[in-house]
Amino acid sequence: MAEAILFEKPKIHLIGALRDIEDNLGVGSDVFSGIGATGCFNEKSSYELLEEHKKVLISGEGQNAHKKIDKVLDESAGRAHGSVSDQTEFVFSLENVTRATTLQLCLPEYLSHLQQSLRRATADRGFYVTETLRESSFFEETKEAIFDGFASYIKWSEADKEEDK
Question: Which residue ranges of the chain lie beneath pLDDT 50?
Fold first, then answer.
């Protein structure tokens, strides 16, 4: 496990503001929904996934890229995860924000959201600590607690994998 502390400021990308229209690459609301769903089960952010998707489209492999999106939508919405299909007005990708922040953003019932599963994120990426906490007298204690938490999570995950065999 990397003992990295992320000092990057939060990033917010507006990755889509469409409704049933497509841009010149064929990226429409279905792609934004599919990218959002993919981001829930991938360590990469939905913004990074969208950029990769666009590169594939530019390379001429658009048919395969759209098939992948269709499959994700079938697997998500087809399994009663209807919120995946709601991501068609404004789609934001947020990076380097705390889990507490994302949980607050998911609270309003009038908003739809897709959130990366913690089962897909790894501790190798590190963790974000606010500037205020980094400068406080609690920083070393907090850092130790976070590293202990990551170590416990890895231990429990490996034990769970062993039980599945």
Answer: 1-2, 20-21
**Domain total in the chain:** 1
**Of 89, 62, 87, 67, the residue nearest 77 (C-alpha):** 87
In a domain, 19, yes or no: yes
Q: Which DSSP helix (H) or strand (E) runs through 152? A: helix 139-164
**What is d(CA 14, CA 47) in angstroms, rounded to the nearest whole number?**
8
Contacts for 7 with CB less than 8 Å, ≥ 6 apart: 128, 129, 134
| Separation between Cα atoms, residue 101 and residue 10, nearest integer Å | 11
pTM to 2 decimal places: 0.47
Return the DSSP state at 8: P
**Pairing verdict, β 127-128 and 11-16:** unpaired
